Amino acid sequence: MRKRRELDQKRFKISSENQTYLVEMIQSIKDIKLNNAERQKRWIWEGIQAKLLKFRIQSLALSQYQSLGSIAINQTKGILISYFSVRAVIDDEISFGAMMSIQYIVGMVSSPVESLIGFMQGYQDAKISVERINEIYEAASEEDIEREYLRVLPKCRTIELRNISFRYFGSGSELIFDQLNLKFYEGRTTAIVGPSGSGKTTILRLLMRFYSYESGDIFIGNKKLDSIDFSFWRDSCGCVLQENYIYSDTILRNIVIDDDFIDSERLEIAIRVSNLSGFIDNEPFGLNTKIGTSGKGISQGQRQRIMIARAVYKNPSYIFLDEATSSLDANNEKEIIENFHKFCVNRTVVIVAHRLSTVRYVDNIIVLDKGKVVEEGTHNDLVSLRGKYFELIKNQLELCD
Ligand SMILES: Nc1ncnc2c1ncn2[C@@H]1O[C@H](COP(=O)(O)OP(=O)(O)OP(=O)(O)O)[C@@H](O)[C@H]1O
């Protein structure tokens, strides 16, 4: 059993590696062609297949040993019983007829014994599978089930990060934030700007509670974010992240993800704000047009607009946008930003952006560098400061002037 479990664990690991690799290959097929990397990638794939084959042979050998063992036990038992019953006949202890009866009974019993051994093997396999499924069932929940969580937002909706220290698991010992302090004021739009890798997206991920921080706290008004129910909090947030996913479903079901009942008023607002009506009207099935892997292909700009509509449909109190308009053409971007400004009144909004067009008119800009706040203020304040913000956007300013 122990050997079987060990083999199964190894096979599971290598099968997962195989699957991850295949998914990555399918997703990056154009890039592989572009870089003429077919041969190199195929070698890696063949290496994984060879490892898989090795484990398959090992588990096949183990099954053979087990069934050989059961045959050997069965045959030895038959030989021993024949031997002793023959000896008993020779010693005149039993009659020849009795010996024949014993042989007959033993023959009748051996088939159920073989089935029992087969059953034991099947039972071991089933037990290993159940153990693996249980690992998922028994995985700790995001929330502590013993604790009571708030299902109402505090009156004050300002978000405050106090002394947050955070590092990604497995990325060495490097802290992404060391005692970071930040405020996103209620009812205002704050933009986070900064060089690539400065930690902008990570802040949004922490706000969405995808990761836990090492120390410090995030406050919503006077309540710790930790004390608010996870799903309630995520329901209160409309989020457009770079990792958002388009499902293989209709446009409608990509905007309205989890509601059985579709609120037509909210849907209309979502389509209007994200400027999607032209795109939807041009499709023969309108909102019911299938998109995603098994549907109609969509452009990056259309994808972003669907994500914006998804966030708006939730009618959230908080909006977090990560480069949400980076793939839009200038006209679409302008219209969507204007629509969004109207929609965001009285909502707390955090925008991560590189484009000046997105951050220029926000209430507050936070400039992040290597996980630290280096400047903060309005666009005009920061431009006249001629510091880091100015450095970041000066090329775009020249284009605008
Ligand atoms: N999933 C992850 N695992 C490990 N490290 C990560 C992960 N995501 C980001 N990082 C690291 O965290 C740091 C901050 O990354 P983040 O994506 O927050 O930066 P960013 O300012 O949003 O960058 P960009 O403008 O390029 O999107 C980077 O050094 C990056 O290498």
Features:
single chain, 401 residues, alpha/beta, 6-stranded mixed beta sheet, 4-stranded antiparallel beta sheet, 14 helices, binds adenosine-5'-triphosphate, transmembrane
What value does the average pLDDT take?
Answer: 87
**Strand order of the biggest β-sheet:** 6-7-8-3-9-10
Based on CA atoms alone, the radius of gyration comes out at: 32 Å
What ligands are attached or bound here?
Answer: adenosine-5'-triphosphate
Spatial shape: elongated
Residue share in helix: 40-55%
InterPro entries: AAA+_ATPase, ABC1_TM_dom, ABC1_TM_sf, ABC_transporter-like_ATP-bd, ABC_transporter-like_CS, P-loop_NTPase, Type_1_exporter
Domain ABC transporter: 159-395
Membrane topology: Multi-pass membrane protein
Pfam families: ABC_tran
Explain what the structure shows.
The chain is α/β, with parallel strands linked by helices. It has helices at residues 2-27, 29-34, 38-90, 96-137, 200-207, 230-235, 251-255, 264-273, 277-282, 300-313, 330-343, 356-359, 379-385, 388-400; strands spanning 159-166, 177-184, 189-193, 215-220, 223-224, 237-240, 318-322, 348-352, 364-369, 372-377. The chain is built from 14 helices and ten strands. The strands form two sheets. Strands 6-7-8-3-9-10 form a six-stranded mixed β-sheet, with helices on both faces. Strands 2-1-4-5 form a four-stranded antiparallel β-sheet, with no helix packed on it. The radius of gyration is 32 Å and the shape is elongated. The mean pLDDT is 87. It binds adenosine-5'-triphosphate.
Quickly describe the structure.
With 401 residues, this protein is α/β, with parallel strands linked by helices. It has helices at 2-27, 29-34, 38-90, 96-137, 200-207, 230-235, 251-255, 264-273, 277-282, 300-313, 330-343, 356-359, 379-385, 388-400, and strands at 159-166, 177-184, 189-193, 215-220, 223-224, 237-240, 318-322, 348-352, 364-369, 372-377.
